[in-house]
């Protein structure tokens, strides 16, 4: 009985070997890339909690009477809108340089 590929089984073995080799190489490259990103985040961590947030500063200024009601409401709405836009952009994964073009 003749094989369905009409020849030596070496040709399909070579093709299959190349496909497996390409898959292994890509898996190793992907794993190294993930390790690089993980290492970057481990060594470049900033503690963002050591400074007050913009909302805390705004609330303090309002409590101290530095700004009036109307200005407080406008700035608070602006901060909340900015926060929503940032969350939306992070969810859509929009690059920072593309945001300025809009």
| Beta-strand fraction estimate | under 5%
Residues in helix, % = over 70%
Please outline the major beta sheet: none
Structural class: mainly alpha
What coarse outline follows from CA principal-axis ratios? rod-shaped
The strand count comes to 0
H/E series? HHHH
Work out the radius of gyration: 28 Å
Low-confidence stretches: none
Number of helices: 4
Chain-averaged pLDDT: 77
- Report the span from N to C terminus: 67 Å
Name its key features.
single chain, 102 residues, mainly alpha, 4 helices, rod-shaped, membrane, transmembrane helix, SHOCT domain-containing protein
Spell out the blueprint of helices and strands.
Elements (H helix, E strand, L loop, with lengths): L9 H34 L10 H10 L5 H24 L3 H4 L3
Helix pairs in contact: 2-3
Explained architecture:
The protein has 102 residues and is mostly helical. The chain has a domain at 54-96. The protein is built from 4 helices and no strands. It has helices at 10-43, 54-63, 69-92, 96-99. Helix 2 runs antiparallel to helix 3 (69-92). The radius of gyration is 28 Å and the shape is rod-shaped.
């Amino acid at each position: 009985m003749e094989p369905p590929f009409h020849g030596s089984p070496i040709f399909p073995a070579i093709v299959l070997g190349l496909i497996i080799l390409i898959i292994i190489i890509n898996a190793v490259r992907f794993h190294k890339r993930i390790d690089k990103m993980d290492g970057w985040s481990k060594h470049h961590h900033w503690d963002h909690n050591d400074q007050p947030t913009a909302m805390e500063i705004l609330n303090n200024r309002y409590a101290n009477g530095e700004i009036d009601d109307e200005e407080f409401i406008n700035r608070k709405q602006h901060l909340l809108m900015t926060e929503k836009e940032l969350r939306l952009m992070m969810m859509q994964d929009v690059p920072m340089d593309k945001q300025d073009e809009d």
